[in-house]
């Protein structure tokens, strides 16, 4: 066999070659080569040791191949290049179909002297270019005299100073036309030197912008000739023709008297930001023009270049500015919105009006001169006409490439001069994926020839195109939104009042759609609680909704997410909310980043912002970049939306920022405002809305459908208003303005006007608002005018009152002309039925004010004839014939009757001025505004405009009288009444699916079969792993398997009944023993947590649901494993099953009592101490047993009692994974010595649970346990309180746990705090030892995967470990022989302790117990933060007052102690009483000598007496 070396660059082609070395080697072996693969080492010669090979194969990019080829030149070894880079000029050179490319050349007003100076730095290139210029000059000899007469002096193309900022003299056409062409020839020559041959590469297209057409002809000449050398004569002739064109054009402008400079004006003007129609309209306005103003070049749909006399172009610029001022005035007056016409004008640095009919004679002159020189006259005429006369549609030329090749594979190489052309190309190809490569300098071309990786392409917006997949639920759309959320890309946005109530939100969510509960109506915690409760009742299990919050409303924001946090708290309770939409303002960057982090930590994975301006969109883009890779959403809402609106057009906003938004992979784009029909929704989802602006498809990921929902069956909109919505024509989506300069992108109702049954007015916030045209809108316009002209308030008072009284918020009336009874009657008439309880509060306060006014008592207190005092029962009130507040809530009529009977003068007495002035104060007493205008003053618009939307949902009010706020365009799409919201949104979704299916069929693209849109899940297992949340017994919680890979061995998903959608998520937990030879199976640990799930593939938008029926045995199995069942306890007891309940219930023990037993083994104390107290400093000697040692054997009994608790027929331990230990109490009924006397005995345990309690901390369950010795001695009592998190149904706080273990004690007197000891301990690195000793095998403490189930990154330290360690810190004997024996202990757990944390334990005396003993407070802190607190009742140590005998006594001895200690005084007093009664003397009276009262002994003295 022949020998070959296969050299490859492992970095080339993004590593593809390195991954396929074996396959490539096999291919060469098939052709008879023995191949040796070898990675390229650029520091060594690849031929060292390979001198005898038959073939060298080189795989890499152009740089790699070129480097090896250079070294190979001297060896004679054949080289086989293998193009393997991601962007290979070599591949282009070989005309690889994988790398289609086009060349592009720029035209006039480009910095050609800079490009020429760059090229002449290469000596060979400089020589070649000078040769071509000289040859062209020789060809022009026949007309040299005419040319010299035109130029006035010889033109030296190499003599112009390079200046990137301006051309100066080099702009003169006599030099620039030939100069530009020369630099482009130089670029072609340079490419040839670098190995790129135009003749061989045969580019897909060669594009010339303006005079760049000369370079196009050069390129085609090279292709035709086969090489640059062969085409040399033709190239010289084209250069010569370029010189003729420049001279002929210059000669012609002189004949026309066209001065190239008129002030700042030149013969060509660039106009960006104007359509062709707008340009033509402005051209038509130029009066008395000297000549034609022609559109010379069309760079894009809104970028044109004009040619003409400079003074005519200056006149055009004036017209453009006038029109801008006019359009800006219209926008300022709010007669329309959208982007104001404001083109960017720039005069080009040229001396000729290229591409103008003014140059027709110059074309003929060029042809004439060419004939004299013997040139090809047809080619000359074509070239001259292209440069001087013809319009250039650059936009069309570039777009023609889209059909010639797949844009995503196409490269356009810009050869200059300058980089202007690349920018023009980029504007046209944006969104297509075409790669635009700048190759305008020697350096750029050299770099391009050695690229090893692909240059950056323009964005390819087809990557965001929706697709249709086939799922068990039918055909579904896949967009970034549906991949993220699993829900269709048709959203029900938050709208006040439509989505304030839960019915419509639940109905949309039950159909699988994104549905936002409007935060604008969740005005109090009580209202929110009520709505969430109703929502949970109406939602199917596994369905979720989102919450729309108003950021700029400080009251609501603080209530919902600020200080009160009612939404995160509700989410923590398992409420079915999985997303937050931050509307009405965009937070600052730092605040937004913190907010996203906080919301996602609160279990709200989907966060969206709703910008309404370009600046706000860019702010959201900055936020997205700051939080990457976390995905967030942006809901871009245009000014065509209903209600409060901006004057920004949706299409303008999208067009201006689409590329920036799509540059963020972690940003999902949703659009809304004016999307009122299914067809229009399909336009935006498919991206075809952009075609109207000459743009490629710009698909959005989802659309907001708001106005269409207002007439839904579930909407509370009154029937009359629904009818009016259907009848309102609105503004057609395809409506066109007669004003060509008006924004194309939007349709507007002018401020203060009415169009199509829609009005644009002002709200009480003086913000623009769209509303139905009716009496309410008409009144609003009147009030706005009066507010702007307050002097009309009095003169138009009658008109104002009439207008108000036609609305749902009428004028209350002139109070000064009313009697007190009329005042009360009018209040009830306008406000009852009460839509808010504070209406009744204010009515009662009004009656109380009236009674105080008309009562005969002049001053002080009086007895009410109307109302009972607070706290009086309804029965007592009825007996006294008085009213309660509940009576007022039910009906105001009896109160009015009682007022008239008790105080008949109220029917005659007029309201006094003081009460007239007080009335507005009453109205403002509560946040909820009253449904009337109390006074006509300068705040009239606010009185009337506040809280005006709910009336459109109240059938008491006519459609003419209420404010209803649909979108002016979308209202035209409303055709049905009481259509279910699921069907409405379904119509929009179906239309989008149909549009996309048509597109896919046209492109012959197949529809994939997937399980769901969420993450494009391919199976039920894949869907489970891609669902961030699961529904756990009616509560939304984090999915433990979220983000795991298919087939993950630790998160196993097994089909239980695949046909029924039933699966088991079996989480295999890691343990300390995993590396044992037997895998640790001989050691007890919780090794599996099984979560049974049901997946409904036919119901999109539904998260996996925990199977309630199958969950029960699984959680009880986990409970038993956690309690150590199957293990031999540290006491030697074999735990074979959980204790049994006796079935006897009572009020105290509502779930029966469990009985268990354990052995009080001799090792229990010291084994427990080894896992806890051993962490103390060596200066402390642990006690023989800590009280908490008794807790370990009790865990089976504790967990049995916990498992006995049922909530609404379902075991409370369904939430075992979310259980936290709140408090631990233990009371030792015997002292340590007496306790240890029972060593070796069987101790009986009794355990029971109190009824559960719903609290703000979770569902609280309290367990009681007693430890009783065989002889019936009660040894200890303990109480354990647990909270099941994510089950909060109450704001009530759990009661404080009793201190000191709830142990009985005598009176405690507080003392000044005294620090007794302070120690630092280091928490264990692993909790297995404590689990083994304590008997609590909760995997949250012993397994990383177990901890992650509860949302933790790593296992936590057992709370009971620190409790026991703190007990040892109290009881240990120190160097001064001091220790404190605990009789009662309460331990409160506040914060988490991580493995290896350093904990500071402080023991302080805080009280003393009468007749002996102390109370201690034990605090545990980490870095100064309190994590737990214990309170201990410690026993008085045994002490004796001993007098050793004769010889040491002295007068008054121990009297100091008696004076200082109450306990000592008590002893002396009892002794004195004894000696008086038995011995006949007073011991307190002895002063001169001491009697011997004891014998010598030794005793341990206490530090206190």
Task: Describe what you observe in this structure.
The chain is an alpha/beta fold. Helices cover 35% and strands 18% of the residues. It has 50 helices and 48 strands. Strands 35, 36, 39, 40, 41, 42, 43, 44, 45, 46, 47 and 48 form a twelve-stranded antiparallel beta sheet that branches. Strands 16-17-18-19-20-21-23-24 form an eight-stranded parallel barrel, surrounded by eight helices. Strands 10-7-9-8-11 form a five-stranded mixed beta sheet, with helices on both faces. Helix 25 (614-627) links the parallel strand 20 (606-609) and strand 21. Helix 5 (112-119) runs parallel beside helix 8 (173-193) and helix 8 (173-193) runs parallel beside helix 10 (213-225). The longest helix has 25 residues, at 232-256. The radius of gyration is 45 Å and the shape is globular. The model is unreliable at 90-95 and 1487-1505 (pLDDT under 50).
Concise synopsis of the structure shown:
It is built from 50 helices and 48 strands. With 1505 residues, the chain is α/β, with parallel strands linked by helices.
Q: What class do helices, strands and sheet pairing give?
A: alpha/beta
Task: Let me know the number of strands.
Answer: 48
Distance between the termini: 105 Å
Overall 3D form: globular
List low-pLDDT spans. 90-95, 1487-1505
Quickly count the helices. Answer: 50
Helix content: 25-40%
For the biggest sheet, the summary is: 12 strands, antiparallel
β-strand amount: 15-25%
Mean pLDDT: 89
Please tell me how large the radius of gyration is: 45 Å
């Amino acid at each position: 066999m022949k020998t070959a070396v296969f050299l490859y660059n492992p970095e080339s082609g993004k590593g593809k070659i390195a991954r396929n070395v074996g396959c490539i080697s096999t291919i060469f072996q098939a052709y008879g080569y023995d191949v040796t693969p070898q990675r390229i080492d650029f520091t060594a010669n690849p031929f060292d040791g390979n001198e005898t090979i038959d073939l060298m194969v080189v795989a890499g990019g152009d740089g790699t191949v070129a480097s090896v080829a250079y070294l190979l030149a001297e060896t004679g070894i054949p080289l086989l290049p293998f193009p393997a880079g991601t962007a290979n000029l070599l591949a282009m050179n070989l005309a690889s179909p994988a790398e289609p490319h086009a060349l592009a050349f720029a035209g006039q007003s480009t910095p050609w002297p800079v490009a020429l100076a760059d090229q002449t730095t290469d000596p060979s290139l400089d020589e070649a270019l000078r040769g071509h210029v000289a040859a062209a000059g020789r060809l022009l000899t026949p007309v040299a005299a005419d040319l010299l007469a035109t130029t006035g002096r010889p033109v030296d193309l190499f003599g112009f100073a390079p200046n990137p900022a301006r051309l100066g003299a080099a702009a003169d056409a006599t030099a620039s036309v030939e100069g530009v062409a020369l630099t482009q020839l130089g670029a072609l020559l340079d490419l040839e030197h670098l190995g790129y041959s135009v003749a061989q590469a045969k580019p897909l297209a060669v594009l010339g912008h303006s005079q760049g057409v000369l370079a196009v002809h050069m390129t085609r000449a090279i292709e035709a000739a086969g090489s640059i050398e062969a085409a040399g004569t033709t190239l010289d002739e084209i250069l010569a023709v370029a010189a003729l064109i420049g001279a002929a054009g210059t000669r012609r402008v002189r004949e026309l008297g066209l001065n190239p400079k008129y002030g700042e004006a030149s013969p060509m003007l660039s106009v960006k930001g104007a359509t062709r129609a707008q340009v033509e309209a402005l051209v038509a306005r130029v009066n008395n023009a000297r000549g034609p103003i022609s559109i010379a070049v069309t760079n894009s749909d809104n970028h044109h270049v004009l040619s003409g006399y400079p003074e005519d172009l200056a006149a055009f610029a004036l017209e453009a500015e006038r029109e801008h001022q006019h359009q800006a005035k219209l926008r300022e007056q709010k007669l329309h919105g959208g982007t104001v016409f404001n083109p960017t004008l720039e005069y080009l640095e040229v001396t000729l009006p290229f591409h103008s009919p003014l140059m027709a004679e110059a074309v003929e002159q060029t042809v004439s001169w060419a004939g004299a020189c013997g040139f090809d006259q047809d080619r000359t005429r074509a070239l001259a006409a292209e440069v001087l006369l013809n319009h250039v549609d650059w936009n069309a030329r570039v777009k023609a490439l889209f059909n010639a090749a797949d844009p995503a594979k196409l490269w356009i190489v810009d050869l200059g001069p300058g980089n202007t052309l690349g920018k023009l190309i980029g504007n046209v190809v944006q969104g297509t994926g075409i790669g635009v490569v700048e190759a305008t300098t020697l350096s750029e071309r050299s770099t391009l020839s050695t690229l090893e990786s692909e240059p950056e392409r323009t964005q390819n917006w087809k990557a965001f195109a929706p697709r249709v997949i086939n799922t068990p639920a039918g055909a579904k759309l896949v967009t970034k939104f549906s991949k993220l959320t699993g829900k269709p890309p048709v959203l029900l946005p938050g709208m006040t009042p439509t989505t304030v109530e839960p019915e419509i939100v639940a109905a949309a969510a039950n159909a699988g759609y994104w549905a936002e509960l409007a935060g604008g109506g969740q005005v109090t915690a009580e209202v929110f609680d009520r709505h969430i409760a109703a929502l949970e009742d109406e939602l199917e299990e596994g369905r979720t909704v989102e919450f729309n919050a108003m950021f700029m409303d400080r009251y609501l924001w603080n209530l919902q997410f600020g200080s009160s946090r009612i939404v995160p708290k509700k989410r923590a309770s398992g409420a079915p909310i999985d997303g937050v939409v931050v509307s009405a303002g965009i937070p600052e960057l730092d605040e937004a980043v913190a907010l996203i982090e906080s919301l996602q930590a609160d279990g709200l994975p989907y966060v969206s912002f709703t910008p309404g301006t370009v600046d706000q969109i860019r702010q959201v883009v900055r936020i997205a970049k700051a939080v990457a890779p976390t995905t967030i959403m942006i809901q871009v809402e245009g000014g065509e939306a209903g209600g409060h609106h901006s004057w920004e057009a949706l299409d303008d906003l999208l067009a201006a920022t689409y590329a920036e938004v799509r540059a963020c992979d972690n940003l999902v784009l949703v659009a809304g405002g004016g999307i009122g029909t299914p067809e229009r929704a399909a336009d935006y989802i498919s991206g075809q809305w952009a075609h109207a602006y000459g743009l490629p498809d710009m698909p959005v990921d989802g659309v907001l459908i708001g106005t269409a929902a207002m007439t839904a069956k579930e909407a509370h909109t009154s029937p009359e208003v629904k009818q009016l919505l259907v009848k309102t024509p609105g503004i057609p989506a395809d409506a066109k303005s007669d004003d060509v300069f008006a924004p194309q992108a939007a349709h507007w109702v002018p401020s203060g006007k009415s169009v199509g049954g829609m009005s644009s007015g002002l709200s009480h916030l003086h913000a623009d608002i769209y509303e139905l045209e009716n009496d309410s809108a008409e009144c609003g316009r009147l009030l706005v005018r009066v507010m702007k002209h307050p002097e009309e308030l009095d003169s138009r008072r009658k008109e104002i009152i009439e207008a108000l009284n036609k609305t749902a918020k009428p004028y209350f009336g002139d109070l000064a002309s009313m009697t007190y009874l009329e005042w009360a009657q009018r209040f009830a008439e306008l406000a009852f039925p009460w839509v808010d309880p504070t209406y009744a509060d204010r009515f009662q306060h009004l009656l109380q004010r009236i009674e105080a006014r008309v009562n005969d008592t002049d001053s002080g207190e009086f007895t009410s004839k109307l109302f009972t005092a607070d706290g009086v029962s309804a029965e007592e009130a009825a007996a006294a014939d008085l009213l309660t507040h509940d009576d007022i809530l039910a009906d105001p009529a009896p109160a009015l009757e009682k007022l008239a009977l008790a105080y008949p003068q109220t029917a005659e007495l007029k309201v006094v001025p003081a009460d007239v002035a007080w009335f507005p104060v009453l109205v403002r007493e509560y946040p909820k505004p009253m449904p009337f205008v109390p006074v006509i003053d300068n705040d009239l618009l606010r009185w009337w405009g506040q809280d005006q939307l709910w009336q459109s949902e109240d059938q008491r009010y006519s459609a003419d009288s209420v404010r209803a706020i649909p979108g002016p365009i979308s209202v035209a799409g409303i055709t049905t009444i009481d259509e279910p919201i699921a069907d409405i949104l379904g119509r929009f979704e179906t239309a989008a699916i149909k549009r996309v299916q048509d597109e896919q069929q046209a492109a012959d693209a197949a529809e994939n079969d997937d399980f769901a849109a969420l993450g494009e899940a391919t199976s039920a297992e894949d869907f489970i792993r891609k669902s961030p949340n699961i529904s756990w017994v009616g509560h939304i919680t984090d999915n433990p398997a979220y983000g795991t890979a298919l087939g993950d061995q630790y998160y196993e998903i097994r089909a239980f009944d695949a046909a029924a959608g039933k699966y088991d998520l079996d989480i295999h937990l890691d343990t300390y023993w995993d590396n044992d030879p037997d895998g640790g199976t001989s050691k007890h640990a919780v090794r599996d947590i099984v979560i049974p799930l049901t997946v409904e593939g036919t119901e999109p938008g539904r998260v996996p649901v925990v199977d309630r029926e199958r969950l029960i045995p699984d959680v009880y199995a986990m409970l038993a494993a956690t309690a150590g069942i199957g293990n031999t306890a540290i006491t030697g007891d074999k735990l074979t099953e959980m204790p049994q309940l006796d079935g006897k219930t009572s009020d105290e023990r509502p779930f029966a009592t469990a009985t268990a037993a354990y052995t009080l083994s001799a090792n229990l104390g010291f084994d427990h101490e080894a896992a806890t107290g051993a962490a103390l400093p060596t200066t402390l000697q642990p006690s023989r047993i800590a009280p908490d040692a008794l807790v370990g054997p009790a865990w089976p009994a504790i967990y049995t009692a916990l498992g006995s608790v049922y909530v609404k027929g379902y075991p409370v331990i369904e939430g075992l994974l979310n259980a936290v230990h709140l408090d631990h109490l233990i009371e030792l009924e015997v002292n340590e010595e007496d306790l240890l006397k029972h060593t070796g005995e069987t101790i009986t345990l009794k355990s029971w649970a109190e009824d559960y309690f719903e609290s703000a901390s979770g569902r609280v369950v309290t367990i009681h346990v007693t430890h009783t010795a065989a002889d019936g001695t009660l040894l200890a009592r303990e109480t354990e309180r647990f909270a099941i998190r994510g089950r909060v149904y109450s704001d009530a706080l759990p009661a404080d746990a009793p201190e000191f273990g709830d142990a009985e004690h005598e009176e405690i007197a507080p003392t000044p705090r005294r620090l007794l000891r302070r120690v630092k301990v280091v928490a264990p690195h692993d909790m297995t030892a404590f689990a083994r000793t304590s008997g609590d095998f909760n995997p949250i403490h012993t397994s990383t995967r177990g901890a992650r189930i509860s949302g933790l990154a790593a296992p936590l330290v057992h709370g009971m470990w620190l409790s026991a360690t703190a007990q040892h810190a109290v009881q240990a004997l120190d160097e001064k022989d001091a220790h404190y024996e605990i009789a009662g202990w309460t331990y409160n757990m506040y914060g988490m302790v991580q493995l290896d944390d350093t904990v500071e334990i402080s023991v302080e005396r805080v009280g003393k117990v009468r007749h002996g003993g102390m109370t201690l407070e034990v605090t545990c802190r980490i870095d100064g933060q309190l994590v737990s607190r214990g309170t201990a009742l410690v026993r008085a140590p045994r002490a004796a007052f001993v007098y050793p005998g004769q010889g040491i006594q002295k007068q008054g001895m121990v009297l100091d102690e008696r004076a200082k200690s109450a306990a000592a005084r008590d002893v002396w007093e009892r002794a004195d009483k004894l000696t008086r009664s038995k011995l006949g003397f007073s011991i307190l009276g002895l002063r001169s000598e001491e009697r011997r009262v004891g014998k010598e002994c030794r005793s341990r003295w206490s530090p206190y007496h």
